Automatic annotation (TrEMBL):
Gene3D superfamilies: 1.10.3730.20
Protein name according to UniProt: Guanidinium exporter
Similarity annotation: Belongs to the drug/metabolite transporter (DMT) superfamily. Small multidrug resistance (SMR) (TC 2.A.7.1) family. Gdx/SugE subfamily.
Organism: Massilia agri
Pfam families tied to this protein: Multi_Drug_Res (PF00893)
SUPFAM superfamilies recorded: Multidrug resistance efflux transporter EmrE
Subcellular location: Cell membrane
Transmembrane segments: 27-46, 58-78, 84-104
Entry keyword set: Cell membrane, Membrane, Transmembrane, Transmembrane helix, Transport
Bilayer topology annotation: Multi-pass membrane protein
Length: 105
C-alpha cells in the first residue's frame, strides 16, 4: 500500500506543478487553488508512504515521478520541445527510479 501511496503522491506532484505553471505566478485563482490542494495531497501521501519506505528511496521516487511526469505533460499538453537530449535525460531519470525501487526490496 505504501508504494501505491507514493505513486499517487508523485502524480499529485505533477498536478500541482502543472497547475502552478497555469496560475501565472499565482495571479489566477483556480490554478492557484489546485496548486495548493495538489501540494497538500502530495505531501500527505508522501508522508504516509515514508512510514514504511526509507526516506531516500521515497523522496527520490516521488521527485522522479514529478520530474518525468511534468516533462511528459509539458511535451504532450503544453507543446514544449522534445529534443533528443531532454528525452535521454528523462530516460536516465526513469532508469534511476527503477534501480531505486529494486534496491528497496
Amino acid at each position: 500500500m505504501a508504494w501505491l501511496m507514493l505513486f499517487v503522491a508523485g502524480i499529485f506532484e505533477v498536478v500541482w506543478a502543472v497547475a502552478m505553471k497555469q496560475s501565472a505566478g499565482f495571479t489566477r485563482l483556480v490554478p492557484t487553488l489546485v496548486t495548493l490542494a495538489g501540494m497538500v495531497v502530495s505531501f500527505v501521501l508522501l508522508s504516509a508512504a515514508m512510514r514504511t519506505i526509507p526516506l531516500g528511496t521515497a523522496y527520490t521516487i516521488w521527485t522522479g515521478i514529478g520530474a518525468v511526469g511534468a516533462f511528459l505533460v509539458g511535451i504532450t499538453v503544453l507543446g514544449e520541445q522534445a529534443s533528443a537530449m531532454r528525452v535521454i535525460a528523462a530516460v536516465l531519470i526513469v532508469s534511476g527510479l527503477v534501480l531505486m525501487k529494486l534496491s528497496a526490496d
